[in-house]
Amino acid sequence: MKNIPLSVPNLNGRELQYIKKCIDTNWISSSGKFVVDFEDKICKYTKAKFAVACVNGTSGLHIALKVCGVSRGDEVIVPTLTFIAPVNVVKYVGAEPVFMDCDNYMNIDPVKLREFCSKECRITRSGLKNKRTGRIIRAVIPVHIFGNPCDMEEIMSIARQYHFKVIEDATESLGSYYTRGAYKNKFTGTVSDVGVYSFNGNKIITAGGGGMIVTNSRVMSDKARYLTNQAKDDPVRYIHNEIGYNFRLTNLQAALGLAQLEQLKGFIKTKKYNYELYKKLLSGIRGINILDLPAGTAPNYWFYSLIMEKNEFGMNRDGVMEHLQTKGIQARPVWYLNHLQKPFRKNQSYKIEKAAWFWERVLNFPCSTNLEIKQVKYIVSVIRNLHGNN
Q: Smaller CB count within 10 Å for the chain: N or C?
């Protein structure tokens, strides 16, 4: 069996055809038909009113904070269990992160979020003030971890009560949506003030990089487009009245992303099939489970998470990961908790408990959309044999 990577692109659509059009017409840079088409198709798919293409998901989150009015001296509530990008961007705008624990699906915990707002903060004319730091909470960034939708109904309720913005980090969850409740049939990224998708190489669709800001606010959309394009007030005479950024997506990347978007429904179908196959084949192995899915949601099944219980399985998460690697199977642990990262150790964190539990136990394993059934069976057989030898 050849090596099985964790998550790689599936380029079997019209990617080459569209990229060739870019080259044939000499439209390869940040202007071109495919950029506009990609934005329009994202709007059509997600039903967001506006979309602004950008160079990557991180830049999208950065601009989202700017258009939501977050600035130096403010605070933004972020999950500690997430890729570090939504934490770093808080510092980009001069604000400070406050770290929140996760729920049973590794998403930001809305119960503790509400508790923090009610017990650790007070409402003032300037906004929700953190009693400990004296800073104003301007926003929260819920991250739909591994494609599993957060409890946005509760998060939005908290945000309305305490008057701060919500920026959805939907970089991992394009295609995930809600099947019941106040946001039934709404896609992640479109519920809040601003949402951001990513098209990095390991995402469910890729543009070789790239991101997309979505919002239902024309004002925010116009501001985002202005800032991502160097804040040009007069592009002929080069007048710039604000600090802007070169965060534009190239036509080549948009062409690739558009071809990928055409295949998204099929990719999700494959991801779901493989998730259910893994779950079936792994059933009955003591001490190992696949993370369940939030009720009332239809996720995109981007990443699969094994939860390893050493006392029952006989080996800890890192031991299993190392063994899989010897068999040519790429796996990785969940991210190191961000409140423990060196740049953020002095920042406030609130009752981090569940996230620490997950950090010790979660292992991500192969989930590419071109993963074959025989590869799934091989991976499970390696795990089963490992369990039998302990």
A: C
**Within a domain: 6:** no
Tens digit of pLDDT for each residue in 280-319? 999 999 999 999 999 999 999 999 999 999 889 989 999 9
Which amino acid is present at 331? A
Q: For residue 7, tell me if it sits in a domain.
A: no
Q: Are 169 and 23 contained in the same domain? A: yes
Assign 33 to helix, strand or coil: helix
Q: What is the secondary structure of 201-263 as a DSSP string? A: TTSSS-SSSBEEEEES-HHHHHHHHHHHBTT-SBTTTTB-SS---B-PPPHHHHHHHHHHHTT
Q: What is the pLDDT of residues 327-379, one digit of tens each?
A: 999 999 999 999 999 999 999 999 999 999 999 999 999 999 999 999 999 99
Could you give the number of structural domains in the chain?
2
CB neighbours of 353 closer than 8 A, spacing ≥ 6?
A: 101
Other C-beta atoms within 10 Å of 103: how many? Answer: 21
Q: Identify the helix (H) or strand (E) that includes residue 162.
A: helix 152-162
For the stretch 246-267, pLDDT in tens is 999 999 999 999 999 999 999 9
The residue range of the domain holding 302 is: 264-388
100 beta partners: 79, 350
Is the same domain home to 209 and 249?
A: yes
The Cβ of residue 364 has, within 10 Å, a number of other Cβ atoms equal to 20
Specify whether the CB–CB gap between 218 and 49 falls below 8 A. Answer: yes
Helix H, strand E, coil C: the string for 42-102 is HHHHHCCCEEEEECEHHHHHHHHHHHCCCCCCCEEEEECCCCCHHHHHHHHCCCEEEEECE
Residue 265 · residue 291 · CB < 8 Å? no
Q: Based on the domain organization, do 173 and 147 belong to the same domain?
A: yes
Tokens at 114, concatenated: 């509400």
Low-confidence ranges of the chain (pLDDT < 50): none
CB 300 within 8 A of CB 204: yes
Phi–psi pair at 204, nearest 5 degrees: -65, -35
